[in-house]
Amino acid sequence: MSDPQANQFLKSILIDEDSLAAASRDQEQERQVAIFDLLDGNYFEPVESKGGPYDLKLSLVENRLAFDIAGPGVPERRHLLSLSPFRGVIKDYFMICDSYYSAIRNSSPQQIEALDMGRRGLHNEGSNLLRERLEGKVKTDLDTARRLFTLICALHWRG
Q1: How far is CA 137 from the centre of its chain?
Q2: Which residue, 55, 74, 88, 95, has most beta carbons within 10 Å?
Q3: What's the whole-model pTM score?
Q4: d(Cα 44, Cα 115) in Å, to the nearest integer?
């Protein structure tokens, strides 16, 4: 007997280059790591899907986040999410990330750890918000939502 969730995953992810904001070296590294980790292991199940794996394209369309999903068990579909609920947490996340990257260069291990804990907390907050916003559209686990949130941050400043 096979696990029905075994084929509920993303096999590819594309970020619309026209939607990407200019990124620092640290942000670009986070983006690449998030894509690598996402493809290495994720749970992604569009509602009413008959099975994957899936291709996902992330972009900004008229100031909304677009999830374009395609795969063998789901008709191509687009889910548009308002960026408004994400703006506060993304702004705070970027602020603390800037502080964290500065601290890595000049601060004590305790200060770096404190900033990292705050950064992780905001990242979890954004990930949980994403899961709430995708409810009824796509099911994900927390790790997948965390990596997707990183990619949403990469798109945000153009919006």
Answers
A1: 15
A2: 74
A3: 0.84
A4: 30
